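Thread amino acids onto this structure.
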């Protein structure tokens, strides 16, 4: 990523958009030194997309019906490139990216998942954690590859599972951590202070400059 210019985030979402909102508020507060280049949704009625409109960010959606996956992704990539997006942040984007998309933004796509990966990938991760009976779960920010909820891990936060938790109560506590670590990870990636060895993402400078800034 080029230094010296303000980098631009592309946010992809399919639903409520609370992670997008947390990132956007950090950008607007100057805690994240970047701009929101485009907010895209595969669902025209996603509440997160309506929120992007209210914020006044460039945003839009594309109809998925009848469009083959790679063809769809080619159109999304074109939109993101036209808006000079440097870093793509999946924030509840309910589509697996094609190889074309992953190559087009190689090493520049992040995702957040509500479990401590590699445990409980896929849908309903909080419910999966409860059903399995784990005592600790959490959330993970990772680079995106072509597999589901795979890719080198950037940040994780743990959340205890309480005896009286429901999927809703557990999700709510995990979400607080999601909102914190996603911005931390974005800040870290934008700074470029890391190298990747196999699956390991290793900080090349202390994380002190990145921590505590986003604590609720
Ligand atoms: C979050 O739990 C995130 O971890 C998962 O999808 C959910 C999106 O929530 N990938 P929101 O739309 O950001 O509120």
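Threaded sequence (216 positions):
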């Amino acid at each position: 990523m080029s230094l010296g210019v303000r980098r631009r985030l592309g946010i992809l979402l399919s639903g409520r958009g609370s992670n997008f909102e947390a990132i956007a508020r950090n950008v607007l507060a100057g805690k994240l030194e970047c701009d929101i280049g485009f907010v895209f949704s595969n669902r025209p009625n996603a509440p997160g997309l309506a929120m992007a409109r209210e914020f006044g960010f460039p945003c839009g959606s594309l109809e998925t019906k009848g469009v083959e996956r790679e063809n769809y992704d080619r159109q999304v990539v074109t939109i993101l490139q036209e808006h000079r997006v440097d870093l793509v942040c999946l924030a509840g984007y309910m589509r697996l990216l094609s190889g074309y998309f992953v190559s087009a933004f190689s090493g520049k796509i992040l995702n957040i998942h509500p479990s401590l990966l590699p445990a409980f990938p896929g849908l309903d991760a909080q419910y999966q954690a409860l059903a399995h009976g784990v005592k600790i779960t959490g959330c993970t920010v990772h680079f995106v590859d072509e597999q589901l909820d795979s890719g080198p891990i950037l940040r994780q936060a743990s959340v205890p599972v309480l005896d009286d938790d429901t999927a809703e109560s557990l999700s709510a506590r995990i979400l607080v951590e999601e909102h914190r670590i996603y911005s931390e990870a974005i800040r870290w990636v934008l700074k470029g202070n890391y190298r990747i060895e196999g699956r390991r993402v290793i900080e090349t400078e202390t994380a002190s400059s990145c921590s505590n800034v986003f604590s609720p």
